[in-house]
């Protein structure tokens, strides 16, 4: 269950099926991202693909009859129309057409009628219809999947198709379980079941029966069940980069940062192509610094002990180790730049203090102390408005029902320091409060958790900045142990003969977006439970900024009921 | 609370050189630049490796340096196992090609008969076209019967009434009636090229006015069909200099792939102390890969230098091909393993020989012990000693030696390996025969 591998194999298959010759690949906006997530340009050049074109690029161009064209697009009606146009006046010699999802017969017919010059060789459906972010992480890049509390129909369609594609690309049959308390999850679960039924022939003919192995599970969860996780500052490398600098399709823009070398205005962080990154993805910030220090030490030692290269022999040796050096210098400088940028932000915005308080609110209950510290930080100049907003929201989530809740006063304080749109706190609070929650949001009441916490306390918390673990981890552990309650997470579709058996393959999908912190949890679970393979997906991968966007979109046009007594915004 | 956090901060801000605890949190790089300007070479050497090459490298630290990099950059065994343990097959896919082709051919068949009819007419029209205008008109009418226009009051295409200024005209291919505005003209030269693709093409474009006079008047429908035919023809003959150069380059790459694999194998065999290949063999192989690389480089440069307007797709294509080739050469052809020196090979071979020797010694001792226990048995006389020259085995061995020599000369190392194996087999057989004949 490696999603990157699955997409890669499809694309390799496409380039191989078209045989030798110069190739161009014609894509739409989404498939461009799908490919760029798994292949670097130099890799794809080696597969004889030399040009990358967008199907919606209508500019006039020269005839390229000596090229083979691989078309890889989503089966949308716009793409069919654009492709029909292309086939009527073909610019390339032959066409190999691949759709990233199920295509209707009538659409194939439309295309066939346009192919008057008989340039099309193959028409296929392949199911690489999601962005493979990491081996166990995928996304659809949709921020704001809900509109006014219910699904945006296009996005619902996209997500259900994407999940169908995911199952087909991994060759898995599945039963669907979903969070019964969430309307959005139920909708998606039903839609996915309908799609699976409609394509039953496709599944039956191609996916082998699992036999003795328990049927894989698709577990659909709601982001709003755990609004805390996306709000926290992160200290593991990947999550931290996303929170502070924003990763967009594996790319990080450093253009806004001062004195960044020109080559690093935009850096690519991909665990597939960058082994240093793959290795340190989940290391915390301190460990990364340590690793870099070691590397540089080593380098310096070498530099000191050998001052010069004199003979031809020396030069030759240098050239032979050159690829190694080039690789080393490229990767390490890139990461030094990124880490440098991160640490300057940490220092500038008091992030250590902010994060400590965030973690404490998330993990402990002490109203008076927390209130006092929030007030102190709100009064600190260097704390960003964004962080102030997050702190107040965390406070609101935990204490809004507290007898002496000072939420209105804190909102005033936000207003006073000029924080834009403090109303966002209430929107998020409203959304979270509206959910009939099975457990306390911060999981304090659960006796098991209290003992766990106690033990942790005895051992001494290893790192106060990473005390919080996402709800997802507990949910998954329950599921793996067969303890996830059927009335809260009912099963849909497929035979439930596997009920009560411990699942091996699990695909978790978060409606409303997953986070890199949760990806880390999934990674830890994959390692802790041999034989269990979990893949995590979300409508998008959130950081706190995009999470506020998500909330705003979901609350559009909705009246506040739970928080209507708070008027001062 | 800051005091409580010192440990966590500490790790992130340690300076690699002075190892000072920079919890003042000036960023790693800026600290480096400001406080350690004399140590700049460390940073710089990370950044531009060629410039600082001389200061950093000496041959004898290749290995430990490589180790450091590997430790830092590569996944360790455990992590690798986690990532690579799962086998995966390519996911489900479904082909709609058959359906597509069925729809297409049903549709194209209709067009095909019509196009063929038009082409036959076009052929007849163009072949013996008289130059005289009146004769031409007559000729055209003989080939294609013109529709009787007496009852047609409106142009069938634009539905405008015919009168003195809007005259009736006929499509020269289907004979139907249309007005001047609705007619399209086909250049006679192009028409000839369509009918007979082998005829020399004239590239000159006629201006619209002369075209109207000399060209064939067609209706839009016929024109489209003929035009389509022409495009299909063109795309069949689209092979250009560029494509040939590209194909040559690819075929060199095809040759390079097994050559590199062979080289690796030979190299390994040398390091293992086997005698199948000798150093000159491997060097020759290396030379050959170098030649291939040169060839690929040359061809890709040719492709890149092919004239193309800058900014067009053609130019981008050519650059991309060059880039891919350069990358391929650098990664696959020039990063070959270093060869061992003669002395190293000798050393390895000697060790191997000694090992074998020891083994034989042990074997012999064991045999002797066994022989001693059977000492009472009578020893067989050995009188049928064969004449070496007549032995067919020896003859065969000599022949094979000759083959090997030849194969070496032509760098066919696959064959060398097979022949060497054969030779070994024969030697063994020969030895065995001798032994058995002795006993």
UniProtKB/TrEMBL annotation, chain A:
Matching InterPro entries: Sec-1-like_dom1, Sec-1-like_dom3a, Sec1-like, Sec1-like_dom2, Sec1-like_sf
Gene3D superfamilies: 1.25.40.60, 3.40.50.1910, 3.40.50.2060, Syntaxin Binding Protein 1, Chain A, domain 2
Family: Belongs to the STXBP/unc-18/SEC1 family.
Protein's UniProt name: Vacuolar protein sorting-associated protein 45
Lineage, uppermost ranks: Eukaryota, Metazoa, Ecdysozoa, Arthropoda, Hexapoda
Automatic annotation (TrEMBL), chain B:
Keywords, comma-separated and alphabetical: Coiled coil, Metal-binding, Zinc, Zinc-finger
Positions in coiled-coil regions: 404-436
Transmembrane region(s): none
CDD domains, A to Z: FYVE_RBNS5 (cd15716)
Pfam families per UniProt: FYVE (PF01363), Rbsn (PF11464)
Compositionally biased residues, Basic and acidic residues: 360-371
Stored SUPFAM superfamilies: FYVE/PHD zinc finger, Rabenosyn-5 Rab-binding domain-like
Domain C2H2-type: 13-41
Signal peptide: none
Domain of life: Eukaryota
Domain FYVE-type per the UniProt entry, residue ranges: 149-227
Renumbered residue ranges of the record's region Disordered: 360-392
SMART domains: FYVE (SM00064)
Keyword Phosphoprotein carried by entry: no
InterPro entries: Rab4/Rab5_effector, Rbsn_Rab-bd, Rbsn_Rab-bd_sf, Znf_C2H2_type, Znf_FYVE, Znf_FYVE-rel, Znf_FYVE_PHD, Znf_RING/FYVE/PHD
UniProt keyword Nuclease, yes or no: no
Protein name: Rabenosyn-5
Provenance organism: Loxostege sticticalis
Classification lineage: Eukaryota, Metazoa, Ecdysozoa, Arthropoda, Hexapoda
């Amino acid at each position: 269950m490696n999603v990157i591998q699955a997409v890669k194999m499809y694309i390799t298959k496409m380039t191989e099926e078209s045989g030798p010759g110069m190739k161009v690949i014609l894509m739409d906006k989404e498939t461009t991202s799908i490919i760029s997530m798994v292949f670097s340009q130099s890799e794809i050049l080696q597969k004889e693909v030399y040009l990358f074109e967008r199907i919606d690029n209508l500019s006039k161009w020269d005839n390229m009859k000596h090229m083979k064209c691989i078309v890889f697009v989503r089966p949308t009606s716009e793409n069919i129309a654009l492709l029909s146009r292309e086939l009527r006046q073909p610019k390339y010699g032959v066409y190999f057409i691949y759709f990233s999802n199920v295509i209707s017969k009538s659409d194939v017919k439309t295309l066939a009628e346009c192919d008057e010059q008989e340039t099309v060789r193959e028409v296929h459906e392949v199911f690489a219809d999601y962005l493979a972010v990491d081996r166990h992480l995928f996304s659809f890049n949709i921020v704001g999947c809900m509109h006014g509390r219910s699904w945006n129909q296009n996005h619902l369609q996209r997500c259900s198709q994407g999940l169908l594609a995911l199952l087909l690309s991994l060759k898995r049959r599945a039963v669907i379980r979903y969070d019964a308390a969430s309307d959005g999850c139920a909708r998606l679960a039903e839609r996915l079941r309908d799609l699976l039924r409609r394509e039953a022939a496709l599944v039956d003919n191609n996916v082998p029966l699992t036999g003795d192995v328990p049927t894989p599970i698709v577990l659909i969860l709601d982001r709003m069940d755990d609004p805390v996780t996306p709000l926290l500052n992160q200290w593991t490398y990947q999550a931290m980069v996303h929170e502070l600098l924003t990763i967009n399709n594996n790319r990080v823009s450093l253009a806004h940062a001062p004195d960044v070398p020109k080559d690093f205005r935009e850096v690519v962080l991909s665990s597939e192509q960058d082994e240093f990154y793959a290795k340190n993805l989940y290391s915390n910030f301190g460990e990364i610094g340590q690793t870099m220090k070691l590397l540089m030490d080593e380098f310096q030692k070498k530099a000191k002990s050998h001052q010069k290269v004199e003979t031809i022999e020396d030069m030759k040796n240098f050239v032979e180790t050159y690829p190694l050096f080039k690789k080393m210098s490229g990767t390490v400088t890139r990461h030094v730049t990124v880490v440098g940028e991160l640490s300057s932000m940490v220092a500038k915005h008091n992030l250590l203090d902010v994060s400590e308080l965030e973690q404490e609110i998330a993990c402990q209950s002490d109203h008076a102390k927390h209130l006092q510290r929030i007030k102190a930080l709100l009064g600190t100049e260097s704390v960003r408005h964004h962080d102030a907003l997050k702190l107040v929201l965390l406070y609101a989530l935990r204490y809004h029902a507290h007898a002496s809740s000072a939420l209105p006063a804190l909102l005033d304080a936000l207003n006073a320091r000029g924080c834009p749109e403090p109303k966002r706190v209430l929107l998020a609070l409203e959304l979270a409060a509206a959910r009939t929650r099975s457990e306390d949001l911060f999981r304090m009441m659960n006796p098991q958790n209290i003992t766990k916490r106690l033990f942790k306390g005895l051992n001494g918390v290893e790192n106060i900045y990473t005390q919080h673990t996402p709800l997802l981890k507990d949910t998954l552990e329950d599921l793996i142990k067969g303890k996830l309650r059927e009335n809260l997470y009912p099963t849909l579709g497929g035979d439930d003969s596997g009920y009560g058996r411990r699942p091996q393959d699990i695909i978790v999908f978060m409606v409303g977006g997953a986070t890199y912190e949760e990806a880390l949890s999934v990674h830890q679970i994959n390692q802790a439970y041999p034989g269990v393979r979990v893949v995590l997906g979300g409508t998008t991968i959130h950081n706190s900024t995009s999470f506020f966007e998500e909330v705003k979109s979901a609350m559009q046009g909705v009246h506040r009921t739970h928080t209507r007594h708070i008027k001062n915004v | 609370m800051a005091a409580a956090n010192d440990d966590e901060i500490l790790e992130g801000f340690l300076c690699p050189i002075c190892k000072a605890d920079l919890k003042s949190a000036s960023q790693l790089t800026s600290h480096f630049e400001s406080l350690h300007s004399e140590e700049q070479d460390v940073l710089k050497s990370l950044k531009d490796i060629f410039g600082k090459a001389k200061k950093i490298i000496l041959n004898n630290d290749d290995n430990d340096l490589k180790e450091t990099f590997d430790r830092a950059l590569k996944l360790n065994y455990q992590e690798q196992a986690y990532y690579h343990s799962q086998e995966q097959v390519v996911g489900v896919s479904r082909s709609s090609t058959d359906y597509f082709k069925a729809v297409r051919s049903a549709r194209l068949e209709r067009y095909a008969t019509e196009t063929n009819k038009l082409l036959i007419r076009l052929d007849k029209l163009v072949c013996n076209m008289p130059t005289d205008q009146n004769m031409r008109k007559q000729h055209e009418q003989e080939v294609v019967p013109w529709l009787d226009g007496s009852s047609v009051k409106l142009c069938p295409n634009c539905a405008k009434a015919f009168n003195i200024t809007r005259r009736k005209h006929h499509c020269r291919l289907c004979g139907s009636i249309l007005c001047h505005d609705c007619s399209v003209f086909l250049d006679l030269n192009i028409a000839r090229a369509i009918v007979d693709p082998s005829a020399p093409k004239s590239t000159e474009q006629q201006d619209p006015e002369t075209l109207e006079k000399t060209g064939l008047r067609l209706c839009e429908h016929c024109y489209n069909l003929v035009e389509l035919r022409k495009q299909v023809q063109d795309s069949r003959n689209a092979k250009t200099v560029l494509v040939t150069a590209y194909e040559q380059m690819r075929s060199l790459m095809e040759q390079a792939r097994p050559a590199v694999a062979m080289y690796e194998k030979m190299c390994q065999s040398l390091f293992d102390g086997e005698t199948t290949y000798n150093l000159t063999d491997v060097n020759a192989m290396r030379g050959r890969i170098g030649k291939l690389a040169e060839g690929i480089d040359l061809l890709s440069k040719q492709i890149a230098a092919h004239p193309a307007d800058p900014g067009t797709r053609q130019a981008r294509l050519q650059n991309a091909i060059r880039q891919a080739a350069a990358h391929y050469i650098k990664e696959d052809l020039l990063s070959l393993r270093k060869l061992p020196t003669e002395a190293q090979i000798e050393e390895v071979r000697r060790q191997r020989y000694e090992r074998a020797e020891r083994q034989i010694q042990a074997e012999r001792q064991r045999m002797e012990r066994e022989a001693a226990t059977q000492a009472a048995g009578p020893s067989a006389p050995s009188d049928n000693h064969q004449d070496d020259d007549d032995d067919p085995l020896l003859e065969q061995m000599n022949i094979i030696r000759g083959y090997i020599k030849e194969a070496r000369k032509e760098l066919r190392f696959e064959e060398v390996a097979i022949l060497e194996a054969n030779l070994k087999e024969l030697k063994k057989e020969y030895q065995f025969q001798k032994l058995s004949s002795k006993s």
